[in-house]
Write a structure and sequence with these properties.
Helices cover 39% and strands 21% of the residues. The chain contains twelve helices and 16 strands. It has a six-stranded mixed beta sheet with strand order 2-3-1-4-5-6, sandwiched between helices. It starts with a helix and ends in an 11-residue tail after the last strand.
Length: 389
C-alpha cells in the first residue's frame, strides 16, 4: 500500500510538473507553396523565445514547450489542427499561420475555445478587421500597413497606378487598403487585375494592364502584390512595360524573391523588413546569431517570427501567468521589443503597430538579390492605419 501511495504521489507530481509547462502550438503551413515562409517563421519564433528568456526557455519559473502542426495551407485542416491544439493538447496559446485564408478559418476556433491566437505572418486586414475577435493578436503587419507605406513611397501628383494581385484575401485586402491609402497623395488606381494564386503565365493579365494604361498621361506604375511562386515581376518585365512608360513597383519580400529585383535597379517601394535596415540591439543579435547558425542573413519572416516569440514572453511576464484573460489584459496596449524596434498592440483591434521602410533597389555584382536600400523609415506616427472592426 505504501509503495502504491508513493507511486501515485510520484505520478501526481509528474503530472503537476507537466501541467506547469507553458505550451505553445505553432500551427502553420510547413509544406506547400509557402514552405520557405513557414521555415523562416518557425526559426524566428524559436529565436525570439530564446532571446526574450535569456536562453533559458523559461518564463515565470515555467518551461516553454512548443509543438508544431502543419496546416498544409488547407483552411479546413488549419481549423481542425487549432481545435486539436486547444482541446486535445490543452495548449495555453497558439501562433500562426502563414496564409491569410487559413488564418480566417482559424479565428472562430480561438473564440470558441477562448484561447489566444497570435497571428504571424498572415497579413489580410480582415484578420484584425471584420473577422476579428478578442482572442486574436497579430504581430505581423497588416495589409493597411503595407498599403500606407507603399502609398507614401509611390504616391504623387498625376501618378497612375495599376495593381496586380492574387485572387484571395491577401491580394484583395491588399489592393483595397492600397486604394484607400492613395487618397490624398495625388495618385489613383487606374486598373485592378486579380489572378489565381498559382498563376505562372501573366501574358493576358499584363496585356489588359498595358491596354488600360498606355494612353494615360503622367507617371505610370504597375504595383504588384504577390506571395509565393510564379515570379510575375520578372515575367511582366520581360514583356517590356517600359514601351508604354510603365514602371514596375512592389513591396519587400524574402531574399529568394529579391533576386528578381536585381533586374530593376532604382525601383522603389516599402518593406516590412530587410536585415541591414533596423539598427537596434535585438536585430544586431538576430543577424549575428543567424549568420552563425545558418550561414545566411535572417529573412523577412524570420524577423516576424522573432517578434511573435518576444511578444509571447513579454505578455507572460506582464500577466504573471498563462491565463487567457490575464494575458488579454496585459497585451492590450502592450509594447514589446522586436528586430524592428518597439512594437505596440493597439488596444482596439490587437494589431501590432510598427515602423515600415521606404526603399530603393541598389544592385551589386557580388550580391545575389536586389538590395532594398533605406530611403527613410516610415514611423508609427507617420501612418494612419484604419481600425476596421
Amino acid at each position: 500500500m505504501n509503495r502504491f501511495l508513493a507511486t501515485a504521489a510520484t505520478a501526481a507530481l509528474l503530472a503537476g510538473a507537466a501541467q506547469a509547462d507553458i505550451t505553445i502550438a505553432h500551427v502553420y503551413g510547413k509544406t506547400g507553396p509557402f514552405e520557405a515562409y513557414a521555415k523562416q517563421s518557425h526559426v524566428g519564433l524559436m529565436m525570439g523565445l530564446e532571446y526574450a528568456t535569456g536562453g533559458t526557455m523559461e518564463v515565470n519559473g515555467e518551461k516553454i514547450v512548443v509543438i508544431e502542426k502543419d496546416t498544409q495551407l488547407d483552411p479546413a485542416k488549419g481549423r481542425a489542427l487549432l481545435a486539436e491544439a486547444y482541446g486535445d493538447d490543452e495548449v495555453d496559446l497558439a501562433v500562426g499561420p502563414v496564409s491569410s485564408g487559413v488564418a480566417l478559418a482559424m479565428l472562430p476556433v480561438a473564440e470558441e475555445y477562448e484561447k489566444l491566437l497570435i497571428v504571424e505572418p498572415a497579413v489580410a486586414d480582415s484578420i484584425t478587421g471584420e473577422n476579428f475577435n478578442r482572442y486574436i493578436f497579430r504581430t505581423s503587419r497588416n495589409s493597411s500597413q503595407d498599403a500606407v507605406a507603399n502609398a507614401k513611397a509611390l504616391g504623387g501628383e498625376n501618378v497612375h497606378i495599376a495593381t496586380l494581385a492574387q485572387d484571395y484575401a491577401f491580394g484583395r485586402d491588399g489592393v483595397a487598403a492600397f486604394r484607400d491609402a492613395l487618397d490624398g497623395t495625388g495618385a489613383a488606381i487606374a486598373h485592378e487585375e486579380y489572378v489565381p494564386t498559382d498563376t505562372t503565365d501573366f501574358t493576358a493579365a499584363a496585356e489588359r494592364i498595358f491596354n488600360a494604361m498606355k494612353d494615360l498621361d503622367g507617371d505610370k506604375k504597375l504595383f504588384i502584390i504577390w506571395a509565393g511562386g510564379g515570379n510575375p515581376m520578372s515575367k511582366i518585365n520581360a514583356m517590356d512595360p517600359g514601351r508604354f512608360g510603365i514602371e514596375i513597383a512592389t513591396g519587400g519580400n524574402i531574399l529568394a524573391a529579391l533576386a528578381a529585383y536585381k533586374e530593376l535597379p532604382g525601383m522603389e517601394g516599402a518593406t516590412y523588413y530587410y536585415y541591414e535596415i533596423p539598427q537596434n540591439p535585438v536585430n544586431d543579435w538576430l543577424v549575428e546569431e543567424h549568420f552563425k547558425r545558418y550561414d545566411s542573413p535572417p529573412d523577412f519572416f524570420t524577423a516576424g517570427g522573432m517578434a511573435s516569440g518576444m511578444a509571447v514572453v513579454e505578455a507572460l511576464k506582464q500577466a504573471g501567468s498563462a491565463d487567457t484573460e490575464e494575458l488579454i489584459t496585459a497585451m492590450e496596449g502592450m509594447s514589446f521589443d522586436s528586430p524592428k524596434g518597439t512594437m505596440t498592440f493597439r488596444a482596439e483591434d490587437h494589431q501590432a503597430m510598427q515602423p515600415m521602410y521606404h526603399f530603393k533597389i541598389r544592385v551589386e555584382d557580388d550580391v545575389a538579390w536586389g538590395i532594398p536600400e533605406l530611403v527613410r523609415e516610415i514611423g508609427i506616427d507617420d501612418m494612419d492605419i484604419p481600425i476596421r472592426n
